[in-house]
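During the reporting period the student researcher (J.K.) took over the structure-prediction task from the postdoctoral fellow and processed the backlog of single-chain submissions. One of the processed entries is reproduced below for the supervisory committee.
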Amino acid sequence: MRPAEPGADDTVRILRTPRPRRATWPFAVVAGACVVLAGSAAFWLLRPHPAAAPPSATAQVATASAPEFQIEAATEAEIGAHVATSLTVFRLADNPRILVLDFASLHEQGKMLNRVAAFVEKAGLPHDRVLTDSELDAAILARGDTTETFYFGHDYAASALARFFERADSQRIELNPQEEKLRTLLRQEGWFARDVAAGLISLPAVGSDPRITASARAAILRHELSHGEFFSDPAYAEFVHDFWAQQLTETERAGMRAFLGREEYDVRDEELMLNEMQAYLMFTRDPTFFTPGQAGLTQARLIELQTRFLAGMPAGWLHDLLASDQGAAAAH
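J.K. obtained the following structure tokens:
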């Protein structure tokens, strides 16, 4: 998700750029040494001495399996209110298959996830290979961005992340320490297994950029959480596919593609287009980041689409959230 480019309605793009990433706990093995004393001390060799009790099986298992990332469950409100001083990983309470990376700085976020973004979805960049450091730096510079402003929020399916690391390894790309931390997290979560339905999203701390205010952070989080649901709930993803094909006209789909193309998404990726459609049209209410006119829609048509979307979407936390938003909008 990056900030929107000024368009016909002069709004600012924040969700997609400029898009609206821990500490290792050491293990110690202590070995004892027996010293045999001669002469007058030989007497002690004849006396039985209690052997040191071996560590219990429970303790050994706990030591061997201690996770590097401590992940706590949290609601959207709790995540939004959190003030990160270092990378914090949350598991969404409403859907444990969604992980949220809360970064203290955009620099840290960018170092972990910008190369993934280039590989997965950035327009004009190859998606069949992983960029080297110099290629990534050149791509960011060519867009007038920095490591910090390339994206403001990220979202990826477990399968896309697994594909990124597989391709990086096959190319023998030397990844940076932040990217290796991400690999460790995914391995801990078992996301390198086949057919894992899960999603990872990220957001930066308030003040990490002048544009990241408390309201901007809330908008980014809501937008990215809808992507997390798309990646982790096959029933919801299927519903979005059908809605894109059956409820939007061809002109409206073209309008969405045009908007997303200006946001530097790869418009050739149809699944990316419909995934972003649901995030922007249904869950991005802050006009600083998106207005219907940017996609060629009227406000009345947007409300109609939102009403139809709510009526057909699967039951669950995201349905309830959209219903709450619709109710609040109707009250005003």
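The committee noted the following: The first strand starts at residue 72 and ends at 74.
J.K. will present the remaining backlog at the next meeting.
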